[in-house]
Design a protein that fits this description.
By secondary structure, the chain is mainly alpha-helical. The chain is about 40% helix and about 10% strand. It is built from 18 helices and 15 strands. The strands form seven sheets. It has a three-stranded mixed beta sheet with strand order 6-7-15. Strands 1-5 form a two-stranded antiparallel ribbon. The chain has a two-stranded antiparallel sheet with strand order 2-3. Strand 12 and strand 13 form a beta hairpin. Helix 5 packs antiparallel against helix 6 and helix 10 runs antiparallel to helix 13. It is globular, with a radius of gyration of 23 Å. It starts with 11 loop residues before the first helix and ends in an 11-residue tail after the last helix.
């Protein structure tokens, strides 16, 4: 039984959210009206409900798993599943030019689910503010936690849609309908940053319950926001400047997290993907899930429920999120144990002959290789649902074994109680490294990146086959300070982020932040469509495809107050 870290016994009205006609007039049902909440215990329940809300997405309206938005839309993975028509909305995302503002699931549903989480935070903030400090001694801390949670949801919306409406707990229903989505890019970043800064200023470094946001979490998240904000975009999403002041803020904030000594890299990268080692030293902030908690199905992550191997008898569904050949090739290494930056994609890597980064076997299901560290049931090509369309590779970082105590099958779909990391220490290190490189201080970035590579090289303990041999030939070495120029360091940083977070959904957003999405993705498509003909009509259009469209239903609901993103 997975331990509960936050209070989870709250009124069912706080747990179950009924549907609403539009996201912006969403009001949680049950006893969620702040006027009815007078006791500290009831308010504490609302705070818990706000924490729950950041994990309340679903398979076709995900709000924390970016497999469709950040992995399939990048060069990391194909949609997978039973052909291009199976969950066609994700196929449209993969082709870029097929996405429409009227798409009912994914584009519209994610928008609504994120605003539901924002509404929960605002309801709870109003309730907390209704009590005095004497009545509710934790008032300032809880307000800081709630503003952190609200900022997290707004940050996610910003990455997906860019031009979003932002309102706080003081806005009435009438006020909300007057809030446009036409703030400048910098102003909207600043509004979200103000919530994170409040959390930095008012949260303790350590909380009595592990899952609660703390000061260091807020500093790390604010650093992430400042890193995105540093890459200034014009109205057509082109990166026109890299703001050095913002980058220095990233360095200062990440240094505070690093210097605290509270977080460190886990000895094995596998520790980040297993429930037995969750909430470990590398986990900075995570959404908490539970199983065997007295409810029918637990509180589980179902957003990745489509992404288990279809033909594997222990699963049976559904075969989505197939690793791309491009990604597999990217894990190959040269004789010096470094990436094949310029030649990695010249052909189809023969994995029986090349050397690879160990992270390949932590990420990709490959025929004959242990799947999710179980060497008694190696991955098989027979597990692949549609190899004629999507090839024979699969993904596995966010999947769990059917024998895991965290695993639950509900009908044909799989859920897991493994916590979902929103921020990890490896991300903190690489954020600081990126800031140093763009500041022209690349020498400071080298040891940070090499920490990540050295950990990768050491992460072999769970990778052996049943006969005691390794499934791949591993060769991962740190970068050499010789010729460590800014251009080379930038290339290394961008490569390292891809390998470290592959299939976790970061890749697409990284490419957009760096301003290289169009070139990278069209280069990828031009090669990959020969290997995978289903991509023949795919094309990334700069100035449009960096962001999702504003849902047409929301534009209609606000009588045209919301303006559509460029190109749609």
């Amino acid at each position: 039984m997975k331990s509960k870290i936050l209070v989870t016994t709250i009124l069912s009205g706080l747990i179950i959210l009924s549907s609403c006609k539009k996201a912006l007039d969403y009001t949680p049902k049950g006893v969620l009206s702040s006027s009815d909440l007078k006791s500290p215990d009831a308010v504490e329940g609302l705070v818990t409900a706000a924490y729950a809300a950041i994990g309340n997405g679903d398979m076709i309206g995900p709000i924390y798993s970016d497999w469709a938005y950040g992995s399939v839309r990048s060069d990391d993975a194909y949609k997978g599943g039973g052909g291009t028509g199976d969950v066609g909305e994700v196929d449209a995302l993969e082709h870029y030019n097929l996405v429409t503002p009227s798409m009912d699931s994914f584009v519209s549903r994610t928008w609504k689910n994120l605003f539901k989480s924002i509404s929960r935070a605002n309801v709870a903030i109003r309730a907390v503010n209704s009590l005095s400090d004497a009545e509710y001694p934790n008032k300032k801390i809880r307000l800081a936690e709630l503003r952190f949670l609200r900022a997290h949801s707004y940050f996610t919306m910003k990455l997906l849609y860019k031009n979003i409406p932002i309102f706080d707990e003081t806005a009435t229903a009438a006020d909300i309908l007057k809030v446009s989505n036409t703030l400048s890019n910098d102003d909207s970043w600043n509004k979200i940053a103000a919530d994170f800064q409040y959390a930095v200023d008012n949260l303790p470094t350590t909380q009595p319950e592990l899952a609660r946001a703390n000061k260091l979490n807020a500093q790390a998240y604010l650093a992430k926001l400042k890193l995105y904000q540093a890459y200034e975009q014009d109205g057509n999403h082109h990166v026109v400047n890299i703001n050095k002041t913002r980058l220095q803020e990233v360095v200062t904030l990440t240094q505070a997290v690093i210097a605290s000594g509270k977080y460190s890299l886990s000895p094995d990268i596998a520790d980040n993907f297993l429930p037995e080692t969750e909430n470990g030293p590398e986990s900075v902030f995570a959404i908490q899930f539970t199983i065997n908690d007295g409810t029918t199905a637990g509180r589980l992550n179902f957003e990745d429920g489509l992404n288990y191997p279809h033909g594997a008898p222990q699963y049976g569904c559904c075969g989505f999120h197939a690793a791309s050949q491009n990604l597999v090739n990217a894990y190959t290494t040269d004789a010096n144990g470094l990436p094949n930056f310029d030649t990695f994609n010249n052909g189809v890597a023969d994995l029986s002959k090349v050397t690879v980064d160990t992270r390949l076997d932590h990420t990709v299901g490959i025929d004959g290789h242990p799947y999710k560290y179980d060497n008694t049931k190696p991955f098989s090509n027979s597990w692949v649902r549609d190899p004629g369309v999507y090839g024979n590779f699969h993904t596995m970082r966010n999947q769990q074994l059917a024998t895991s105590s965290s695993y639950f099958k509900l009908g044909p779909f799989m859920g897991s109680a493994k916590n979902y990391d929103i921020l990890r220490y490896d991300d903190v290190l690489l954020m600081q490294a990126e800031a140093y490189i763009e500041l022209g201080q690349q020498a400071n970035a080298l040891p940070l990146i090499n920490q990540i590579r050295n950990r990768a090289a050491a992460s072999t303990g769970r990778l052996k086959k049943l006969d005691g041999t390794f499934p791949s030939s591993y060769n991962v070495k740190p970068y050499n300070p010789a010729n460590w120029t800014q251009d080379y360091a930038r290339k290394a940083l961008q490569w390292e982020r891809r390998l470290e977070f592959a299939t976790e959904g970061a890749r697409f957003f990284d490419l957009v932040r760096w301003g290289i999405a169009e070139k990278t993705l069209n280069d990828y498509i031009n090669v990959e469509k020969v290997r995978r003909p289903f991509l023949a009509t795919a094309k990334f259009t700069a100035g449009r495809d960096e962001y999702l469209p504003i849902p047409q239903s929301e534009i209609t609901f606000t009588n045209g107050l919301y303006k559509q993103n460029p190109g749609y």
